[in-house]
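Re: [ENG-882] Designed sequences occasionally contain unexpected residues at chain ends

Forwarding the minimal case from QA. Structure tokens:
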């Protein structure tokens, strides 16, 4: 595989990742992402993407990820629906930081990337 093909694959992966993130945003913000580029305007306007976007709006997350202390590497996920109380623990290594979460997506920061 040539370097050009690898670069194209990475770009496609990045585009798919951005599209996935946009599809989990609140509707108002997802629509505003049309101004990112003509390519994203076309993707966001696509009927198939609209279908996914509206499905994600209906399947909102009622869960919370939290840590009991700022320096802790232990995180807890709890359901905010009283009838379905579920709690699980997530332990991250010291070189991984949880930056934020939104609609079921989490953003992690890795001190070192392992390939």
């Amino acid at each position: 595989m040539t370097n050009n093909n690898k670069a194209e694959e990475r770009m496609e992966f990045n585009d798919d990742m951005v599209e996935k993130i946009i599809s989990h945003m609140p509707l108002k913000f997802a629509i505003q992402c049309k101004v990112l580029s003509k390519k994203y305007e076309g993707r966001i306007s696509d009927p198939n993407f609209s279908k996914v976007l509206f499905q994600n709006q209906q399947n909102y997350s009622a869960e919370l990820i939290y840590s009991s202390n700022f320096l802790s590497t232990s995180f807890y996920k709890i359901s905010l629906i009283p009838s379905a109380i579920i709690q699980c623990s997530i332990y991250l290594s010291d070189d991984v930081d949880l930056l934020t979460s939104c609609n079921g997506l989490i953003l992690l920061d890795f001190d070192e990337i392992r390939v």
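QA comment: On inspection the terminal residues look reasonable. The chain has two domains: 3-58, 63-110. Proposing we downgrade this to a documentation issue.
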